[in-house]
Amino acid sequence: MTRDKISTQRLRLNAVVLAGVLCLTSMGTARDAAASSEMVIAGPESMLVKSLHEISDHQIDSALKGIEHVLKTNPNFRLAHLVRGDLLLARSRPINDIGGAAGGAPERIADLRAEARVRLQSHKEPVPRDMVPKYLLQMPRDQQYAVVTDTDKSRLYIYQNVQGKAHYLADYYVSSGKNGSQKLKEGDQKTPVGVYFITANLPRAKLTDFYGSGAFPINYPNEWDKRHGRSGFGIWLHGTPSDTYSRPPRASDGCVVLANQDLDAVANRLQVGITPIIISNKVEWSSPDEVLAQRNELAPHLENWRRDWESRNTDSYLAHYGRDFDSGGQDLAKWSNHKRQVNIGKSWIKVDISNVGMLLYPGRDDLIVVSFDQDYSSSNLSNKMKKRQYWMKEKNGRWKIIYEGSA
Length: 407
What we know:
With about 400 residues, the chain is of the alpha+beta class. It has helices at about 5-20, 30-40, 45-55, 60-75, 80-90, 105-125, 225, 260-265, 290-310, 315-320, 330-345; strands at about 130-135, 135-140, 145-150, 155-160, 165-175, 175, 195, 200-205, 215, 235-240, 250, 255, 275-280, 285, 350-360, 365-380, 380-395, 400-405. Residues about 25-40 have low confidence and may be disordered.
């Protein structure tokens, strides 16, 4: 057998090894056709994935060319360096695993392998365009976008508000807590799961290099977290240090971390105090009809609450509040006493609500976060405010308010 034939066989064998380690399988002709045109103009991740699939097809030269192009534009992309090293090594001797040429710390190599796998997985399982995350029941008119994060898949999805309905716009690779999700206490290095909102925009100039091109704090712990005694603080969306393109899937102390160029793209769509950040350990999908049905189930309860408040029938109004109600300072008994005292002095009440948003809480089908603009006027008081309520479905099927306060 000639040296060229031996070399060719070695390359093919090494390609099979790399493909097997990364669990590369066919994504289907429809997905390939859709991706092929996108990869010409897509970012580093798509070019990396394209090269990895070329490895599985034994197109080593083309794969190496693609990886070198990625590194030319993103020299701090450590995963791309790892794959390039393997491709060069594959020309000269057998390789048994991805990262065989790196010679680095085993735990670092394992992190990069994990990153390769989750990036590939998102391309093998593309976003279902005929479905939406089940949490996005209704987007208020002043909310331009919603962010949904899947910690298991290390993916962040952006949905655009089109006449109150959620439409897919983009998705990005992210890192999350070193110890997974479901944050319970300060220092557990877990990412929280729940419905949160952007509370600030911290530019690069006000941060250390660790946070990259910027940071967006969220309101963890939220009202539901506080009710359940969850502690901690400082959960942000932020970027990466200047010498790091991306971090491993499990690398933060609880924050959601994006590559700087991805954070910059996402930042253009974040509105302080308005944009929801929904974090789930596994995103669930629903059809638009299912989302509409869930929204229509709660909407009459919200309208009846508004109408009963206007009627000054305090008993009917208070019947909308659950036994476990807590406003953050008043339980149901104190809330009821306060409302009865207030209504005694009113000869009329008018309540308008608009700009309504509804978000189903991750992991629960019985809890919805509702926000709206409230225009209240009465015989002796008028005010306008943004309000947030948590509605819970009781065993008898009735929806009741278990939290109410300013948003």
